[in-house]
Write a structure and sequence with these properties.
By secondary structure, the protein is mainly alpha-helical. It is about 55% helix and about 5% strand. It has 14 helices and four strands. The N and C termini lie far apart (about 50 Å).
């Protein structure tokens, strides 16, 4: 333990040095497309089986890269045949691609599945809300994860079903979560709250979830776009201000001493995608485009030959102390790493077209 402040910096002291980022000149459309293809192929080979959040993040990433990817259709059709699992807001994450398939095919079974998920979200007693209206990830806790897992389902289904009120519901959730989790001074997002108290650990992937959900809402043209746009602008400028030269943020993005130098790539990938897409919407385009490409160049250095995004943290519950976020799973592939990497490479490919 370090003396005086009671901080445990043992993991930070043993952190591996960052890898040199890719040269931006080398990230040609051909390289981006080939790398994204390897990431997608590796995700398919994982053997994903559950109707849950990690699978949903992969499916959404694959759909952005290749609309109606065969794996996505097979996965969704298989689960619709067996019966989808509901019980937690994380089970809604695959619903966004179910909605996309409804939009692409018009087949009623996809809409029926979305209606079942919507009914669960609206009526099941397991879905609790904080005093300000934010859907709780667990009773007594508002987490940033929820605006992506539930919000993207609402946005995609609202778009494809012609139901703008669902898009607005997602926008309301973004703002309700921002009221709890976005720091009023820095603009960064905390991971979550516990028993009504926000725990100010600025976890990278929490910032990726909220930023991507906000971008998707803005792209859908919601009525609350002005408010969401400002929330997102503050967040992304804050992240750009904390970005290291090599592009990949620490697992806690503000340089917290217990996690300083412990890099985490899935957050960098998700934030890169959000920055590039936000820039395309005219939000601080020069600065965010530059920061987004810097993040992608940093992430590129951590994509293994077999398409695995390395240095991705494990599934992470809310931690009450910063040290709890220091666990990086370099020993195994993580589906959210693959999915967020696909988001980043797809956003970069769209920039080059």
């Amino acid at each position: 333990m370090s003396q005086g402040q009671g901080l445990d910096t043992s993991q930070a002291r043993g952190a591996e040095p960052p890898r040199p980022p890719a040269d931006l000149a080398d990230l040609t459309p051909e390289v981006l497309a080939e790398t994204a293809g390897r990431i997608a192929d590796r995700a398919v080979a994982m053997g994903l089986t559950h109707w849950f959040w990690g699978e949903g993040v992969v499916l959404q990433g694959m759909m952005r890269l290749t609309p109606r990817h065969p794996f996505v259709t097979e996965f969704v059709d298989g689960h619709l045949g067996d019966g989808i699992e509901l019980g937690h807001v994380n089970n809604l994450a695959p619903g966004a691609v179910c909605a996309d398939l409804y939009g692409a095919t018009g087949e009623r079974r996809y809409a029926d599945a979305c209606e079942r998920m919507l009914d669960w979200l609206r009526n099941d007693k397991a879905v609790t809300r904080a005093p300000g209206g934010a859907i709780e990830h667990w009773p007594g806790g508002v987490w940033a994860d929820t605006v992506y897992m539930g919000g993207t389902f609402l946005i995609h289904y609202g778009l494809h079903a012609g139901r703008p009120e669902l898009i607005e519901e997602a926008g309301e959730q973004i703002l309700a979560h921002a009221d709890v989790l976005q720091h009023p001074e820095t603009g960064l997002y905390a991971h979550g709250s516990h028993e009504g108290r926000t725990i100010w650990n600025f976890w990278g992937r929490a910032n990726a979830w909220t930023a991507l959900a906000s971008v998707e809402y803005l792209e859908a043209g919601g009525a609350l776009s002005q408010q969401v746009r400002e929330v997102l602008r503050r967040q992304l400028l804050a992240l750009a201000g904390h970005q290291p030269p090599h592009g990949v943020w620490d697992v806690l993005v503000d340089g917290q001493p217990e996690n300083r130098g412990i890099l985490e790539t899935s957050a960098a990938a998700g934030i890169a995608a959000a920055m590039l897409r936000a820039a395309a919407l005219g939000i601080e385009p020069e600065r965010l485009r530059r920061a987004g490409w810097r993040a992608l160049a940093g992430v590129h250095a951590y994509v293994a030959e077999d398409g695995t995004l390395t240095r991705t943290s494990a599934g992470t519950v809310l931690q009450l102390i910063p040290f709890g976020y220091s666990v990086i799973r370099n020993d195994m592939i993580q589906p959210w790493g693959q999915g967020l990497a696909l988001q980043a490479y797809t956003a970069a490919l769209q920039e080059t077209r």
